[in-house]
Amino acid sequence: MIGAYAGEIGQTQFLPSSYIKYGVDFDGNGHVDLRHSVPDVLASTANLLHTSGFKNGASYSEGSANSRRCASGTGRRSIARPSAISRISWWAR
């Protein structure tokens, strides 16, 4: 397994622990290859998103439990409040 200097692997920059946990051998060659196999990259990324709670067809801010916490105000920042996006002072908090 070869990664960049910071440890990320492949086109979608998986960390080694994510590579092991979510990697999928979609092209059927016997190993997960996130550097050279587009089918493996896409299937592994889809597996990570699905396992994280992403819902197909949902907008990017409604896809997972983490984004719902942010949108409800229980997370660190709420990106779902359009008025907050336009105020620089809000982001500086």
Tell me the β content.
Answer: under 5%
**Uncertain residue segments:** none
Supply the number of helical segments. Answer: 5
Cα distance spanning the termini: 40 Å
Largest sheet: none
The number of domains is 2
DSSP helix fraction:
40-55%
CA-atom Rg in angstroms: 17 Å
> What class, by secondary structure content?
mainly alpha
Number of strands: 0
What does the model show?
- The protein is an all-alpha fold and 93 residues long.
- The chain is 41% helix and 0% strand.
- It has two domains: 1-51, no CATH class; 57-93, no CATH class.
- The chain is built from five helices and no strands.
- The model has no long low-confidence stretch (mean pLDDT 74).
List the helices and strands and how they pair.
Blueprint: H1 16-22, H2 38-51, H3 65-72, H4 82-85, H5 88-92
List keywords for this structure.
mainly alpha; 41% helix; 93 residues; 2 domains
Q: What is the structure about, briefly put?
A:
It is built from five helices and no strands.
